Amino acid sequence: MKLISACLCGINCKYNGANNSHPCFLELLQQGELLPVCPEQLGGLPTPRLACEILGGSGAEVIQGQAQVINKAGKDLSAFFIKGAQVSLQQAQQAGVSEAILQSRSPSCGCGKIYDGTFTGKLITGDGVTAALLKMNGIKVWNDEDYKERVI
């Protein structure tokens, strides 16, 4: 069993109300190998919602209170992202998950690269809040692009 960003399984939970469905993930879901989660919804955010980015660091710094997740209007939504990460971790632990496949560049799920907090499309090295928390707790995290390259 692997944890996966729900948007990758065709669930319309992205900030804009859409999804990032891919046939490879739909097949794994149908085989019962995936546990879909949307940390942003689990944290209490609605869909659709304004785009968010991490300002001042990456997910680990958000968890430590040293950076913020802000929406495009400048509102600090860090508490929602931290709560969503904690619930996602709890679900992963309850299901015995040791790996996760998460949506690239997301302030929750990004793994390796995330947007820089300026809403200009610039990427920086780092993880989203959920990816960081999962890694801190021993769960191997893949971004969707690297995972697809590995299996396709």
Keyword list:
single chain, two-stranded antiparallel sheet, globular, alpha/beta
Structural class: alpha/beta
Beta content: 15-25%
Q: What would you call the shape?
A: globular
Q: Identify low-pLDDT runs.
A: none
Average per-residue pLDDT, rounded, comes to 97
Provide the helix percentage: 25-40%
The helix-strand sequence is EHEHEHEHEEEHEH
- Taken together, the total number of domains comes to 1
Number of helices: 6
Give the CA-CA distance, first to last residue: 19 Å
Tell me the radius of gyration: 14 Å
Main beta sheet: 4 strands, parallel
Q: How many individual β-strands?
A: 8
Question: How would you characterize this protein structure?
Answer:
The strands form three sheets. The protein has a four-stranded parallel beta sheet with strand order 2-1-5-8, with helices on both faces. It has a two-stranded antiparallel sheet with strand order 3-4. Strands 6-7 form a two-stranded antiparallel ribbon. The chain has one domain (2-151). The two termini are 19 Å apart. The chain has six helices and eight strands. α4 packs across α5. The chain has 152 residues and is of the alpha/beta class. It has helices spanning 23-30, 39-42, 59-63, 78-95, 129-136, 144-151, and strands spanning 2-5, 34-37, 52-55, 68-71, 99-102, 113-115, 123-125, 140-143.
